[in-house]
Specification:
- This protein is of the alpha/beta class.
- The mean pLDDT is about 90.
Amino acid sequence: MCTERHAAAGGKTPRVLLAEIGDIKMQAARASFAMSFFACAGFAIATKKFKKAEEIAAAACDLIVLCSSDAEYASIAAELMLKLKMLGRSTPVMIAGNPENAEELTAAGIADFVHMRSNPVDVLTKWQEKLGIVGQLPAPSC
């Protein structure tokens, strides 16, 4: 895999934080989906429950994937983006799901969305590149 070859050559394995917050049923379902999605690209994945966006903002990771309900994403994302800015961090934030207010969330700073209609090869390749996995390596396979 691209990520493993990158790490074997001395590169860093990207750390993805699956941030469970809000609705318990939705956070578990979306974290499970996101874990499988990102694991097939060889990323280091951590799943953690949070009560506040400021806790997520302080977490050490290369990519944050919010795992909650569509109804909660706008308020969580707004608070998280503000906290990240206050901490001087530019960690990209994704949403697990395909909410109707995706344009609003993108305008608030959300970098991407991952959901059942996402093309795994396209999304994972894009994020490997954004997280520093370089070179002309084959696309990730699941």
